[in-house]
Amino acid sequence: MSVNTFQHIIVTRPITTASPLLHRLAALGLHPLPFPALEIVDNPKIKAYFQTFTHSYFDIVLFISPTAVHSAMKLCALNTLLWPTTQFIAQGPGTAKTLMHYGFTSIIVPENNYSTEGLLALPILNQVKGQKIAIFKGAGGRDALAPYLERQGAQLSRFDCYERRCPTTNIDLSTQIDRPKNSLFILTSCAGLHNLAVLLHFAQPMNKPDWRDCHLLIINDKMKSLARELGHKGKISLADNASDDAIIQCILTLVGAGNTP
Fold first, then answer.
1. Cis peptide leading into 205, omega within 30 of 0?
2. Which of 65, 69, 79, 77 is nearest to 145 (CA)?
3. Half-sphere exposure of 125 (CA within 13 A, CB side)
4. Please, what CATH class does the domain formed by 41-165 belong to?
5. Which helix (H) or strand (E) covers residue 23, if one does?
């Protein structure tokens, strides 16, 4: 196969976070298109929580996404000097990279599994009784981490910094893509997948093109089951995780281009 196996590769990440992946795909000679299936907006209720935040102390501060990092920095000017002995945890390498952009250096990241299970496998989260832990995240989502930590005796503070919404888009993919079967859509969350099904009318497909035939690149079996429930009938491929490296490696494997440079 060649890199032309896919007519287009559609990146469904929010417009605020899609650029790095779009640039890397273009550099590989692929044909990426932005088609956001998620819109990120600030949680208007969260600002009041930060009036006394920096006067508190936390043993562990955990960030679930790069967006959560940006939100925390904007809302409370969090920095490495605030609590010198605090342990900072990032759920994945993208989140860790964003923290480093803000000057953080000692960051704990799961080695391979960037899911909730990967976080809970970290030794630092196995003995949390009496520990004060702050979690920066988006509203909603799976939310299995916080209840587990509370059951283990942690004193938890949740900060739902942002909300995810289905965007209103005027992008007509049918003017650029005439063969959904030859198009690959990258999705890294159930929320994004559900929104894509809404935006492309999976429930009431148009005769031409039928977007249910597109090839999906997702990150877990839960998303695969949801795709079928929503009416998708095309091919599905699984990346190891939601990182850019894992996504690109999966794509290169699909097109037979070898290993990620």
1. no
2. 65
3. 27
4. alpha beta
5. helix 19-27
Amino acid present at 193:
L
Pairing label, strands 8-11, 155-165:
unpaired
Distance (Å, whole) CA 232 – CA 192 = 14
Contact 192, 217 (CB under 8 A): no
Does domain 3-38+167-255 correspond to CATH entry 3.40.50.720? no
Total Cβ atoms within 10 A of residue 31: 17
Q: What is the 3-state secondary structure (H, E, C) of 100-150?
A: HHCCCCCEECCCCCCCHHHHHCCHHHCCCCCCEEEEEEECCCCCCHHHHHH
Q: Where in the chain is the domain with CATH 3.40.50.10090?
A: 3-38+167-255, 41-165
How far apart, in whole angstroms, are the C-alpha atoms of residue 29 and residue 8? 11
Q: What is the pLDDT of residues 109-149, one digit of tens each?
A: 998 888 888 899 999 998 899 999 999 998 876 678 888 99
The sign of the dihedral angle between the CA atoms of 195, 109, 78, 158 is: positive
pLDDT at 235 over 70: yes
Q: What is the pLDDT of residue 141?
A: 66
> What does 212-256 look like in DSSP terms, one character per residue?
GGSEEEESSHHHHHHHHHTT--S-EEE-SSSSHHHHHHHHHHHHT
**CB-CB contact of 25 with 18 (8 Å):** no
